[in-house]
Write a structure and sequence with these properties.
This protein is mainly alpha-helical. It is built from 6 helices and no strands.
């Protein structure tokens, strides 16, 4: 397994997310996306929440599309120890620090 850098972007394309997601996740994504869009349309300050929904679903789409996801999930459910994120994700500590600084 090789680690791929997580794309840093100001915005995420809902069509790209939907294309990447396995079909079984389409309804959940569309429901979350539509809910966030409606909220943002009525209260402009919720635009950031819409961006966060798209970012999280983008990350999920990348994860779910990984050929090793199902086995990794089964291993985690079975309690098989995994590899710490900081060992496989370049810049993990910085991503965590940046995320904590945004809340």
């Amino acid at each position: 397994m090789s680690a791929q850098p997580v794309e840093q972007s100001a915005g995420y394309d809902p069509d790209d997310i939907l294309h990447r997601l396995p079909e079984r996740y389409h309804a959940a994504f569309l429901a979350a996306y539509r809910e966030a869009m409606v909220a943002a349309a009525h209260e402009t300050w919720r635009y950031r929440q819409l961006q966060e929904v798209l970012k999280l679903w983008h990350l999920r789409a990348v994860m779910y599309a990984s050929p090793t996801y199902e086995q990794a999930r089964a291993d985690a459910d079975a309690g098989v120890p995994g590899i710490p994120a900081e060992d496989v994700i370049p810049g993990w500590a910085e991503l965590i620090a940046a995320s904590e600084g945004n809340h």
